[in-house]
Specification:
alpha+beta; three-stranded antiparallel sheet; about 30% helix; 434 Repressor (Amino-terminal Domain)
Length: about 200
Amino acid sequence: MTPETAEPTTPSAQNEREIDTAQREVGRRIKALRLSNSLTLTQLSEKTGLSIGTLSQIERGLTSPTVRTLFGLGTALGVSPAWILDPAVSGGGEDPFVTRSGRGQLLISNRGLEKVIITPPAASRLKAFLVNLDPGASSGDEPYSHNGQEVGYVVSGSMELEIGDKSYVLNAGDCFAFDSDIAHRFWNSGSKAASILWVNAPTSS
């Protein structure tokens, strides 16, 4: 086959593939953030003014969010627009294998509930969070569910955890694990703040 008849991979085709991959990664991050904030597509639509259809396309990587859309999503989800595009660059993750003390990315800070992602960039699927709960703070009045599995360890204080039709009082040193598709919620009914190391891992769809 001569050079004239060969079918080379053009730079533009390579660029398109890279853009598609980056677009899908952005979509996955946005969906993960939405689920971490216990938001449905409808609720995120109300917060951002974007249609459910548009949000769904962005999460599936079928369309790329505009700069204005990124700012709206970042505000609604509690992160910077730059973090949505690249957590390793904007979240203080200079080293792919280590997150230094105090360099985690704040995901949620709402009514006494603080959720900080502490996983280094090298963990492409497994996500670890430090969840801090002030007395009276909770994940919400209604249980929620999502894809994956989770495990947690109560570092200090105490919390109550509802998994399906069972409720547990967990104290410092207690550990829990369950499938995330079981409806669940948690709250701090004690008089002291609680801190929980919480790990989420998606399951294959």
